[in-house]
Every structure is written in C-alpha cells, then in structure tokens.
Amino acid sequence: GPRRKLPLILFTLIKPLAKITSYVLGRGTRKAWKKLPTTQQRTYLEMLNANRGAFMCTGAFSLGGLYYLYESHKQTCPITGRQKFVALTPDQARRIGEANFTEIVNDAQGIIVPETDPVYTKIAKVANGILHANSDLRQIYDKTWTLTVIDAPVMNAFVLPSGNIFVFTGLLENCSNMDQVAAVLSHEIAHVVLGHVEEKLTRTSFLQMLLLVPMSLLWVLIPYDGIGFVTTWFFDSVADIMLELPFSRLMEVEADEVGLVLAAKACFDIREAPKFWGRMAQEEEAFSEELEFLSTHPASQNRQDNLQEKMASALQIRQDCGCPPLDYPAPRSSHSE
Q1: Dist. CA 267–CA 202, nearest whole Å
Q2: How far apart are alpha carbons 332 and 327 in whole angstroms?
Q3: Of 94, 106, 173, 322, which sees the most CB atoms within 10 A?
C-alpha cells in the first residue's frame, strides 16, 4: 500500500530533539524521585512491580509500532538491488535541497563563477555529458538540474537532492584532467540517484527514536550531571563508530561504484577514477587506513582498489554504449579541452 508521509521536521530536528527530550525526562525524573519521601518511593516501586505486565505490554506495543514503521517504509533500490529503509518522500527531499540551495548561493555571493567563464563551460560540459548519457534513469530525468561553480581553493563538489550541482574551482586544481573531474561529479550525482540523503536522514531519525528510552533511563540512573554528560558523549561516540560511520562508508562505496557506471555510459575515460584516488592515497597520512573506522569515508587506497576491481565490468558497459575505444595505456590527459 501507499507509504505514510511523515512530517519533514521529524527528519531535520530529530537528533537535537531526542537528546533534549532524554535529558529533560531522565534528569527530571531523577530529581523528582530524590525529593520523594522513602515511604512514597516504596509505594511507587510496589505499584510498578504490580503493573509490570502492563508496562511490558506497552513496551512491546511501542516496539511493534517501530517495526511496522520500518517494514512499511522498506524499498528495493532499482539500481543496486539493495533493500533500504526510506521514510522521506522525493518531494520532501527536494524541499530540503531547495532550502539548502538558496542558503549556499546566498553565502557564496561574490565568488560564483559566471556561466560565460571558460572554467564554468568546461565543468558544464562534463556535467551535461553525464546527465545526458544517463537520462534513461528516472532519478535523472525527474529533476531540474543546475550547476553552480564557486571560485574557492576547496577540493570539493557536491549535489543536493533537488539536483543542484556545486563545484569548487579547487577541485580542478587537484584533478589531472577532466576525466577525473567526471569521476568526482559522477560519484556525487550517484549519491542523488541512489537517494542517499533520504536514506541517511531516515536512518538517523529511526536510530534516535530507538535510543530515546535507553538514553532517558541513563539520565535517571546516573547520580550526577557531569558524569551523565560524559556518559552520553561516550554512548553517542560508540553509536557513531558502530552504526553511523560504517553506514556512511557503505554509501560512499556504493556511490563510487554506481558513479563509475554513470561516467562509463558518458564515454569518459573511467580508468582515471582509480588513478585519482591513488594520488589522494599518496597525499594521505600513512595510518589513514588503520583509522578508517573513525571516518565517514573509506580510505583513498581502499577506494582505488575497489574501483580497480569494478573496472572490467564498467569498461564493458562503456563499450556496449558505443563509446570510442580507449588508448592503452591510459593517456595522461583525455576527454579534456
């Protein structure tokens, strides 16, 4: 049946609201309990014990509701076949993207590269090539795509779920050719095609709902506020390392792999993608792979290795799309102006 539309504010404010709620409820309950006379505390404990069955039923009912929420919002990604939990609708994701677009453009006033600039033209050619070659995908053709180039020495590019592409000129300075720019843009477009923003916001909101009761109980049981803040910080850190960060790295790997296919269909020299990450790996600290578990992104060396493993199938897709054959070995600069 049709999925129930959840309020947008639930996804944008759930994390701070959950923390505040658990703090207020837990700490308030602890303070109120301490003020009660011993006889009244004993009375409440006896009442809780006598009605433990009702409390257990309420807990089970709540868990059942969360399970229904999860099951009713599961869907299969048509591109990867992976099952995912998404409660945001495409319209809600678009509205989030449009709000962010307005804010970013306002903040970047004065350093936005005009559309007549040769740098903008080069990047637009790459972006348009990717979008045109993949216009068979609903996630591509159902959006109005825009490109904003920002003149700043930042090696970054990103795409909002509304289809707004942002590229910083610092990215071009760190790419050997436009094929590597295409690899980065394809990766960022893949995040939107795969609905990663919607999935991540849904997952974070769901985890916060699951953790609300345990975190409230934590504030009830811990006797001092200072210890409570340290304990909740530790609890949050462990939850990030065990749940949030591995999922973030999974999405980055997925975007790498799907982005490789998007670039292949656009006839770019996709062999430049692992070369780009290989150079990034050389610039990283030697221990970055060992500390990958603390990062939202996989280590660059691992990204290079994974893309190299997917290269044969991606090159076959490129050939099947009727792209011109590639020179061997890979040229130093290709598909560039």
Answers
A1: 35
A2: 11
A3: 94
Q: Give the residue among 55, 156, 147, 138 at the shortest CA–CA distance from 105.
A: 147
**Residue 36 near residue 228 (C-beta atoms within 8 A):** no
Of these residues, 46, 115, 188, 272, which one is catalytic? 188
Q: How far apart are CA 231 and CA 237, in angstroms?
A: 10
Which residue type is seen at 21? T
3-state secondary structure at position 87: coil
pTM for this predicted structure: 0.85
DSSP code, position 294: G
Q: Which two tokens stand for residue 263?
A: 């670039």
Q: Which residues lie below 8 Å from residue 1, measured CB to CB, with a gap of 6+?
A: none
Nearest CA to 178 out of 331, 299, 284 is that of 331
pLDDT tens readout for residues 208-238: 888 888 888 888 888 888 888 888 888 888 8
**What is the distance of C-alpha 24 from the center of its chain?**
29
For residue 280, give the nearest of 314, 316, 304, 310 by alpha carbon: 304
Task: Return d(Cα 232, Cα 67) in angstroms, integer.
Answer: 25
CA atoms of 271 and 261, how far apart (whole Å): 12
Strand order in the sheet with 157-159: 146-150, 164-168, 157-159
Question: Residue 335 pLDDT more than 50?
Answer: no
Query: Does the active-site annotation cover 188?
Result: yes
SS3 of 95, please?
helix
Residue in the block written with tokens 């792999």? 257
Q: Rounded CA gap, 294 and 301, in Å?
A: 16
